[in-house]
Amino acid sequence: MKNILLLNGGKVFAHSHGRLNDTLHDVAVRVLTEAGFATRETKIDAGYDIEQEVRNFLWADLVIYQMPGWWMGAPWIVKKYMDEVFTAGHGTLYANDGRSRACPERKYGSGGLLGGKRYMLSLTWNAPDDAFTDPVQFLEGRGIDAVYFPFHKANQFLALSALPTFLATDVMKAPDVDGTIDRYRKHLSETLNFARSLKQ
C-alpha cells in the first residue's frame, strides 16, 4: 500500500465551520507524507472533476473519508460526490451489481472491481461516546459503524474493504482538539501498520 486518496467532506454550514475536519485532514496528509506515502487530496466542497476522481480511486490503495456526522450520516456533499463518482465508475470501479443469469450463484453486491483496496472513515460528531455504546441512549448502543451501514455498503459495492473507523465525539459541547489530534495520529499509525500486516 503506497497511494492514499484523502477526501475532505467538511463544509461551512449553519453553526458548523468545518475547521476540525480541515485540521484532521491536514494531520493525515502530514502523517502520511512523512511516512513516505504518495497522497492525493480532494476538498469536496471546493468542487471536483468527476472523471479525475474515478482515476483517483483507481490509483489509490486506500481512500480516507474525513467528514462530520450530519443528521445521522454523511453530509449531502459527500453523498453527491459518491453518487456522481461511483456512477461514472461503471466499468472501472464496478462491473455490474454482481448477479448473472448464467451464474445464479453470484450474489448482489459482488460486482466491484477494486478488490485488494481499502477505505477508512474519520468522523466528527457532537454526540458523546456513550450515545454510540449505551443501549438506552439515542443511537441504541449500535456503534458508529452500524450508523454508517449504508455508507460502508456503498464502498463495499466497489469491493473496497474497511479499515477501523476513527471517531471524534463531543466535538462542540466538550472539544479537545489537541487530544483528538493525538488520538488520530495514533489511529493512523496503528491502522496503517495493521493494513501492512495484511499484505504480508
From TrEMBL:
InterPro entries with a match to the protein in the record: Flavodoxin_fold, Flavoprotein-like_sf, NADPH-QR_MdaB
Could you tell me which residue ranges the Flavodoxin-like fold domain spans? 19-190
Say yes or no: keyword Lipid metabolism present.
no
Q: Which Pfam families does the record cross-reference, listed alphabetically?
A: Flavodoxin_2 (PF02525)
Cofactor(s) demanded: FAD
> Does the record carry Flavoprotein as a key word?
yes
Q: Which UniProt keywords apply?
A: FAD, Flavoprotein
PANTHER family, alphabetically? NADPH:QUINONE OXIDOREDUCTASE MDAB, PTHR46305
Q: Which family does the record claim for this protein?
A: Belongs to the oxidoreductase MdaB family.
The protein's name is Flavodoxin-like fold domain-containing protein
Q: What organism does the UniProt record list as the source?
A: Novacetimonas hansenii
